[in-house]
Amino acid sequence: MTIKDKGISRRDFVRGTVTGVGVGVFAAAGFYSYSPWRNQLFPKIARKQADIGVCKSVKVTNISETSWFDNGLLISDIKKAGGLLVNQYSLNWPPFGDGQGLAKGSYEAGINKIKHLLPDRLDEAWALIEQNCVHTDNPGGFSCLVEIEDMEGEIHKILFDTGWSYKWMEESYKREGIDKMLANNEIEMLFVTHEHFDHFWGLPVTMKYNPNIPIMIPDTFYPEGKQYIKDSGHKGQLTEIGNGLNKIMPGVASFKFDVPIICRVFGEQDIFVNVKDLGLVSITGCCHQGIIKFAEAAYRELKYEKDTLYGLYGGLHISPFEDWDPKYDDLVISLGKYGFEKIGCNHCTGIVTAKKFIETGYPVVEGTARFRSKDKAYLGNGDTIEFRAPV
């Protein structure tokens, strides 16, 4: 792990803590919390240095980072349904509505209305969904295409999550050519980070174009989620991934975290890519485990080029609803500890967070705010980021 020297001395730190009230104190205290000085108080981490090999490059194309279009509406639904611990399958959100209204549904009742139409007749299925579900215009979805170039120059494509709304995800797939890639067997696997509605419920759109695609999921999916994979028309191999490190291909490994998540979801897996002559690139869906735990897992578990945590992409789950709290400033400060040299954030990172990263001087790759993404401060729908050492 490379920890960047920010050029702040102990004297500067002390002066910061006693100068001014509020921001100066908390900023300095936050810096100390994540500085090498604090690390002196803890035992040195034993690094396992697992060797996963290397690859030439990795490119990420953002298919859709817009999980939903109205924060207020989503929050209101969750609150009215009973709060953050309510089972997501009971919310009567698309596609599992049974016509009974918010928080009065079930997986079985909802899927029975559309199962006979999956995965090929999605337009008909969505028409029924609009009749039986609440707020059908709000869902979008999170999904990206990860392209790994191996040391021989061959490209391996991984579909990273599969979104939410059938209607929106089909539009997004066609916009980025994902439909044709799936149909032509160009995409080697579907990697599902976790069971949340916005990352997983758009599954029939993927199945429509390739029902035989191998799928990797965390082994903490609930019975409803596993049944949904079957009901969506999947005919290929399903692999359930347990805790810790799992090698996928040379230079690429997943890591699964046991972490409780809102709406009765448990467990998230993400991807690490070791890029030749650059360092490690970390790709996450939501990072519910937290950016610190994510980075520390990489440092603890893996051997990687130049011992550098080079790149980061995905949703970092700091302020997904733009509800900034001063305690989040510590997370912004902590990111600098790891020395990332290229950051592509979006989705549940929050626009406010992305702008704070930029203001702090972090190497954030900005986007184009196309296709209903809201701001250029992060990589939006249709944007790409590539991690490759210069020739």
TrEMBL record:
The Metallo-beta-lactamase domain sits at: 156-231
Q: Which Pfam families match?
A: Lactamase_B
Alphabetized GO MF terms: transferase activity
Q: Which UniProt keywords apply?
A: Membrane, Transmembrane, Transmembrane helix
Tell me where the transmembrane regions lie.
Answer: 12-34
Name of the protein: MBL fold metallo-hydrolase
